Amino acid sequence: MGLYEIYYLISTIFMVYQFMIIGYILMSWIPSLQESSIGRILGKLVEPYLGIFRKFIPPIGMIDFSPIIALLLLGFIRQGVLIVVQNIYTTFF
Prior knowledge:
It holds the Pfam family CCB3_YggT. The chain crosses the membrane at residues 6-30, 68-89. With 93 residues, the chain is mainly α. The chain has helices at residues 3-27, 31-34, 37-56, 66-92. It has one domain.
């Protein structure tokens, strides 16, 4: 497996998780969707990550900004992981 394939796999995993977060956020606008089976599955996968940010970033009025910060940080984490993978790959291969 080459570096490009590893990059693509990692990027795809992060992108899918970002879409899951966005979908979960959109589902929060309609509470009955979060109670569906898909909503419960997304909640189990996304809520542990979002919960970290909700502890430190309180909602302002009725708007919760923690998912925005969580998505931004996830993008930075993705870039960091890709840099580490590139360094490991170039060192050993």
